[in-house]
Amino acid sequence: MSRSEDLFKAAQTHIPGGVNSPVRAFKGVGGTPVFFKKGEGAYLFDEDDNQYIDYVGSWGPMILGHAHPDVINAVRDVLDNGLGFGAPTAIETVMADKVCEIMPSIEMVRMVSSGTEATMSAIRLARGYTGRDKIVKFEGCYHGHSDSLLVKAGSGALTLGEPNSPGVPASLAEHTITLTFNDIDNVRQAFAEVGDQVACIIVEPVAGNMNCIPPKEGFLEGLREVCDEYGSVLIFDEVMTGFRVALGGAQAYYDIKPDLTTLGKVIGGGLPVGAFGGKREIMEHIAPLGPVYQAGTLSGNPLSMSAGLAMLNALQQTSGIHEQLAAKTELLTQGLESQALLHNTPFTTSAVGGMFGLFFTEQTEVNSYAAATACDTERFAAFFQGMLKEGVYLAPSAYEAGFMSAAISAADIEKTIEAAGRVFATLK
Ligand SMILES: Cc1ncc(COP(=O)(O)O)c(C=O)c1O
Ligand SMILES: N[C@H](C=O)CCC(=O)O
């Protein structure tokens, strides 16, 4: 790790905390962040030439594994034509058609450059469409770092202990109502009081930014009902779950139709992309069709569109890929649970499709923010460091989901489980 240590030291001179996104700093697990130089299939290679089985996948987009030839070649094919024009290109329509085909709740879609932009724009659209200011989100859910959404947020904000970020004006944060994920009674109660002022509910249909917490049966259905009753817009933030838990995302997996959907990660094949889309009636309020302004110089960038389209085509054309991802995730989580049991470590897991969670807890199931934040984060940190030494790269925070890729083999999973056995044996 000596080169990573040197690089981290050098990075801190001109980059705040030495990283360009806070979770990368390893504050939740201690030690020095690993500096990577290459990814290939299931593996990452660091600057010291160590190899790791990767269960982060760039936080989700590398669903086919790193440097997948279809994606790399798609980028190569358009590279020589120029990197962007700030004007329409044909591939944007192909992408829009593909997204609408895969997710039928989306009748129109607008491309942006990150998940943050997607959720920020969807919220503005919901406000503009309904003429209401208040929004509802859930504690521990993360929807990027726009002001309205950095209230009781998950991911790095939770890892660093700042779920309510300084810098967000109180006069803006007061419009964000934060409720309890998986508690539909809490939602009904809040709507009984102020429902007619609520522009939208935004939710991660599978919460992946406070570890990985699947929705309880009836929770998402309840949100749909409440939004219908009060005329609020239901936004599924599928930046993580889209094209991952099923080709059609969590909305296909749970068979619930949101009004708007936000996308990111997979849709760019690893390049910076986001998107938001949904009902035509709502999307027609976006400029230039309607008055709600939203724009982006780099939106629909040809490289990102080509990479994303290659990814979506590969996912669509590889039969059974999501079933295989789910089966491999199950193999991993069950194997880890067995090893933990063998070594008397209180531990449980969650899994939805190609997403999973690891919890150091006596509880057998973790389905709330309170339960997730009651888990033993010190043990998680020790486990993380042990696994890193064993050549397994997990998300460097107890408040992040893990991601399976199609490139990870049964043999890689077996190696991971054996490594975990050795690490569990060392945990106090
Ligand atoms: C569910 C969810 N929404 C939104 C975002 C924001 O995406 P980005 O980091 O691309 O801005 C993320 C990840 O960061 C996410 O996991
Ligand atoms: N949880 C985030 C993405 O889903 C982690 C990525 C980041 O903030 O750098």
UniProtKB/TrEMBL annotation:
<keyword id="KW-0963">Cytoplasm</keyword>
<dbReference type="GO" id="GO:0005737">
    <property type="term" value="C:cytoplasm"/>
</dbReference>
<keyword id="KW-0663">Pyridoxal phosphate</keyword>
<dbReference type="Pfam" id="PF00202">
    <property type="entry name" value="Aminotran_3"/>
</dbReference>
<dbReference type="GO" id="GO:0006782">
    <property type="term" value="P:protoporphyrinogen IX biosynthetic process"/>
</dbReference>
<comment type="pathway">
    <text>Porphyrin-containing compound metabolism; protoporphyrin-IX biosynthesis; 5-aminolevulinate from L-glutamyl-tRNA(Glu): step 2/2.</text>
</comment>
<keyword id="KW-0413">Isomerase</keyword>
<dbReference type="GO" id="GO:0042286">
    <property type="term" value="F:glutamate-1-semialdehyde 2,1-aminomutase activity"/>
</dbReference>
<dbReference type="InterPro" id="IPR015424">
    <property type="entry name" value="PyrdxlP-dep_Trfase"/>
</dbReference>
<dbReference type="GO" id="GO:0008483">
    <property type="term" value="F:transaminase activity"/>
</dbReference>
<dbReference type="InterPro" id="IPR049704">
    <property type="entry name" value="Aminotrans_3_PPA_site"/>
</dbReference>
<comment type="subunit">
    <text>Homodimer.</text>
</comment>
<dbReference type="InterPro" id="IPR005814">
    <property type="entry name" value="Aminotrans_3"/>
</dbReference>
<keyword id="KW-0627">Porphyrin biosynthesis</keyword>
<dbReference type="InterPro" id="IPR004639">
    <property type="entry name" value="4pyrrol_synth_GluAld_NH2Trfase"/>
</dbReference>
<dbReference type="InterPro" id="IPR015421">
    <property type="entry name" value="PyrdxlP-dep_Trfase_major"/>
</dbReference>
<protein>
    <recommendedName>
        <fullName>Glutamate-1-semialdehyde 2,1-aminomutase</fullName>
        <ecNumber>5.4.3.8</ecNumber>
    </recommendedName>
</protein>
<comment type="similarity">
    <text>Belongs to the class-III pyridoxal-phosphate-dependent aminotransferase family. HemL subfamily.</text>
</comment>
<dbReference type="GO" id="GO:0030170">
    <property type="term" value="F:pyridoxal phosphate binding"/>
</dbReference>
<dbReference type="InterPro" id="IPR015422">
    <property type="entry name" value="PyrdxlP-dep_Trfase_small"/>
</dbReference>
<feature type="modified residue" description="N6-(pyridoxal phosphate)lysine">
    <location>
        <position position="265"/>
    </location>
</feature>
